[in-house]
Amino acid sequence: MGYFPDKATVHTKTVEGGLFELTKSLRYYSKEFDKWTEVPVGFQSDFASIPLIARVFINRNGKSRAPAVIHDYIYKRHTASRDVADKIFLEAMKSANVSLITRTLMYRSVRAAGWLFYEKNKDV
């Protein structure tokens, strides 16, 4: 299993458009892919693009915040393929002690619809 060397703590400030901007970098090491991801200060995330109906079941401000930021960064910067990004997201959620039900729902959601966001950010 991978790990967050800074205990998956996300330091942010709220910015325009319902986004959150990192005020301290966030790092994650994926053991499965032997890959470090470091999200720099200033990166903006929504902590998980979850449809309103799904927010009844999933708290995007819970333990999944740090994994969601890592996932958003990989998607926006294309530092890995979509498949690898999604698997790192799943691994990171497990590392952050996200419940099995929540991480399964979130992982299946990104596998089903994540291609829309990954392709949208291809030229970033």
Number of structural domains: 1
The largest sheet, given as strand count, sense and whether it forms a barrel, is:
3 strands, antiparallel
The gyration radius over C-alpha positions equals: 13 Å
Percent helix, as a range, is: 25-40%
Beta fraction: 15-25%
Total count of strands: 5
The tally of helices reads 3
Overall residue-averaged pLDDT value: 86
Low-confidence stretches: none
Spatial strand sequence of the major β-sheet:
1-2-5
Termini, distance in Å? 30 Å
Q: Structural class from helices and strands?
A: alpha+beta
Written overview of the protein:
With 124 residues, the chain is of the alpha+beta class. It has one domain. The strands form two sheets. A three-stranded antiparallel sheet has the order 1-2-5. Strands 3-4 form a two-stranded antiparallel sheet. The radius of gyration is 13 Å and the shape is globular. It starts with 11 loop residues before the first strand and ends with a helix. The mean pLDDT is 86.
In short:
By secondary structure, this protein is an alpha+beta fold.
Topology:
Blueprint: E1 12-15, E2 19-22, E3 26-30, E4 35-39, E5 44-45, H1 65-77, H2 82-95, H3 100-120
Antiparallel strand pairs: 1-2, 2-5, 3-4
